[in-house]
Amino acid sequence: MATPTSWAQEVITCDLCPKPTQQFCNNCQVSLCVDCVSKHVDKFKSQTHDIVHFTNRKIQPVFPECTIHSNQRCEAHCRQCDVHVCLKCILSSHSGHNIVEIQEIFKEKKKEIVKENQEIESTIIPNYKKKMNDIGIKISTTTAKFDELEKETEKHRKLWHQEVDNIFNKLDSLIKSMKENYLTPLKSHQSKLKNLIPDMIQTVEQNKEILKTNRVSEVNNYKSKLKEYRDIPADIDVKIPSLNAKTVKGRELDIELGEYKATLTQKTSSSLTDEVSHLTVRELLKKAKVITTILTGVKPLWRVACVRTDEAWVGGTDKVIRRVDKQGSVQESVITRCLSSPSDISVTVEGELVYSDSLYKTVYIVRQGRTEVMITTPRGWTPYRLCCTRSGDILVSMSNEQENKIIRYQGAIIKQEIHKDEHRNLIFKEGLYSLYMTENNNGDICVSDRNAKIVVVVDKTGRIRFQYDGTAARREKPFSPGRIVTDSLSQIIVTDYNNDCLHILDQNGQLLRCVDNFGLDKPSGLSVDIAGRLWVGLFDSGEVKVIQYMK
């Protein structure tokens, strides 16, 4: 409503028509032109009206119209039925009920909103800002400690013979992977705090607007967010591993970081070429073992995406994506915007859920319970599978019904297309099956091309490094590569739907082992958690088996 100083500049129109206002009904709080005065009085004949010149108006609460009796306003509230009532309601269906003046509720609600705004502005927002600053300090400290680890690794590298460079290359890769795994939840925590502050500020501003209104319905319909804001997310503790090194010149070299250990022992120095007799690193278990079996209840089960160490998002053929824990309990459900079911799911480094919809040709992201459009794919191309990389990019596999390709996105911006080799030949075979892909620690893109029945690995520039066709595994049925992931040691793990097993390769494509010793019937989902365990989803049973496969 205009202030007295602005009346000269602003024309205030009638609430019933576009004409300038001249009159005002104090009882109904309605601006009126001369022609509409009679219309207003006729509409509410049963009520009294105080029609005055607009400049003599009095501001007072506007009571809502009765939904039962036309031309009646509700000036009371039935506590027994929790509804607004008019005089006729009180004399009829609400006779004998506990009736209070609606003005009392109106005043109580405004006091509650004022008190809530004071707490949010004076206490909760400053607490969030302090927490966000503390997390920033923790991130800086963590980064500095990992930087010191890298420097210390380089110092010890000089003491070792050139032949052990491979050990340190693996050690560097592990440190970078561990660093990202430790920093990711901290950054996610900081991001969560940061993202909540604007929401709280917006709530305060919305509350201020509500406080300005004299419309009873707007105030009484207010829903408090105070309980949600008071529950500040708990802190995340970070335990940094230490680097232990021991050097006995001419006899033994030993280095250890977390679960990674490498030892080099020299037997004799009589030969012109020293004999390297012993080298141990973190290695595959002789027999992989199931840590737990999760009954998701999702049948058939298509998609699995880990959330840190003890939870995963799962999806089937309906529109819902569910976050389950190791006991199979659903912790959160997201109803997607898909017409049927999402084509794929993944999780960003900040822990946000991403899903693709092939029918609407769109990739969505779920932030703080709200779904937003993240990527709209190029005309003629349909998005299918997703992979959120450690660098924050998103890989999307696409098809135009004739060709398949992979596009790297940074946000909504296309950074790279993997489509053709240096001779302009198609890298991936056309066909019905979409491509699954993941990014390795060295930047390689590892792709399951089920149409060609091979795994294709290209370097960060898109040049083909090698192909794996499953022959080395000597399986009974043709190789059928599906879901694919990499671990902290750059090993490549791919599901084989036809042969009910997993193939584990090193980063150069050499088969290390097949995992098939506990009924991996139709493995359709695959993810790896930050503890280095595999989460394998089974199509028919809807089970997720959590597998430990390394010492």
Structure description:
With 551 residues, this protein is α+β, with helices and mostly antiparallel strands. The protein folds into three domains: 11-103, Double Stranded RNA Binding Domain (2-Layer Sandwich); 104-241; 284-545, Neuraminidase. 23% of the residues lie in helices and 33% in strands. It contains six helices and 34 strands. It has helices spanning 37-43, 87-91, 102-157, 165-212, 216-220, 226-230, and strands at 23-25, 30-32, 51-53, 76-78, 83-85, 99-101, 243-248, 252-257, 260-266, 276-279, 284-295, 303-307, 311-315, 320-325, 330-335, 344-347, 353-357, 362-367, 370-376, 382-388, 394-399, 404-410, 413-418, 436-439, 445-449, 454-458, 464-468, 481-486, 492-496, 501-505, 511-515, 523-528, 534-538, 543-550. The strands form nine sheets. A four-stranded antiparallel β-sheet has the order 7-8-9-10, with helices on one face. A four-stranded antiparallel β-sheet has the order 11-34-33-32, with no helix packed on it. The protein has a four-stranded antiparallel β-sheet with strand order 12-13-14-15, with no helix packed on it. β28 (481-486) and β29 (492-496) form a beta hairpin. α3 (102-157) runs antiparallel to α4.
Give structural attributes:
single chain, 551 residues, alpha+beta, Double Stranded RNA Binding Domain, Neuraminidase, 3 domains, four-stranded antiparallel beta sheet, 34 strands, 33% strand, elongated, disordered N terminus
How are the secondary structure elements laid out?
Elements: E1 23-25, E2 30-32, H1 37-43, E3 51-53, E4 76-78, E5 83-85, H2 87-91, E6 99-101, H3 102-157, H4 165-212, H5 216-220, H6 226-230, E7 243-248, E8 252-257, E9 260-266, E10 276-279, E11 284-295, E12 303-307, E13 311-315, E14 320-325, E15 330-335, E16 344-347, E17 353-357, E18 362-367, E19 370-376, E20 382-388, E21 394-399, E22 404-410, E23 413-418, E24 436-439, E25 445-449, E26 454-458, E27 464-468, E28 481-486, E29 492-496, E30 501-505, E31 511-515, E32 523-528, E33 534-538, E34 543-550
Antiparallel strand pairs: 1-2, 1-3, 4-5, 4-6, 7-8, 8-9, 9-10, 11-34, 12-13, 13-14, 14-15, 16-17, 17-18, 18-19, 20-21, 21-22, 22-23, 24-25, 25-26, 26-27, 28-29, 29-30, 30-31, 32-33, 33-34
Helix pairs in contact: 3-4
